[in-house]
Amino acid sequence: MKKITFSLTLAAVITGGFLGANYINNQQASADNVVVREAHANFIDDFSDKRKLVGATDNVFVGKVIEQAGTKSLDGGPETQFTVEVISTVKGKLSGEVLVNQQGGYLENEEGETELLLIEDDQLLVPGETYLFATRYLESENWHTVVPAYGDLKIDSEAKKSEIMKAFKEAYKNQVIPEDLKDKK
Questions:
Q1: How many helices (H) and strands (E) does the chain have?
Q2: What predicted TM-score, i.e. pTM, was given to this entire model?
């Protein structure tokens, strides 16, 4: 598989330093002739540890995706925005509808083909679905960017919502702010 190297430096700034250098590899082609490419990230910490994930974010909340609201490229890669209805919060004080940004999305390559770029195979959000979101706020765009792969956990039942909320409330009580973000919090 062909590998293309590039850096999403602004993406790293937007997400508060979640990502370092990235590379993309051609992952698969779908029936619609959409080439799926995956960008691999060097995270600033181990975000599989919920305490570190919560510590690195501004807001952690459960929300239902209403619709895709747009796409934008801030520096080198597509980003996709969604309108999300906040259901409940773990960290932060969000309510009502907010704009959630997800790094990745559709783009047209130099050959005129449509590609789908996914960061760490983090599938695009699905309207109508409910997720737990862990986000950083980007004031200049008035949106909340999810942490790729760890910041958008799909919730498909009340039992799962309860389980996830309990785990993240505990993580919030014991949050660990990554060293790279301590002077920014």
A1: 3, 10
A2: 0.81
